[in-house]
Amino acid sequence: MQERYITCILCPQGCNLKVQIDDGKIVSVKNNGCEKGPGYANDEVFHPTRVLTTTVRIRKAKLPLLPVRTKRPIPKGKIFEAMKVLAGIEVEAPVTVGQVIYSNILDTGVDVVATRDMN
């Protein structure tokens, strides 16, 4: 049996979940202070995702970098590859908050959007 400790981030309690995994299945989740813990543990163990927040280069703007993020979480295993893709692009001002900067990053179905207006 495998045991993992995961900090749940779904509510302000930040519970330190004790997750027991046997034969590829979660058999126990302990230390959850609310009902969200077991679902979070399942997602984090088998399909971890993260929202990527980074910057891309921008031309004709007051600042050289534009802050961006994925509209939804992407698989955790694709974060560094997505960062490499975004490091290779450059956009041109003006840009508005929410504007799609990169569509369907790494075929995840998730767009990367600007998080700031930039002129």
UniProtKB/TrEMBL annotation:
UniProt-listed InterPro entries: CPE0013-like_sf, DUF1667
One Pfam family this sequence matches: DUF1667
Origin: domain of life: Bacteria
Name this polypeptide is given: DUF1667 domain-containing protein
Gene source species: Calorimonas adulescens
Lineage: Bacteria, Bacillati, Bacillota, Clostridia, Thermoanaerobacterales
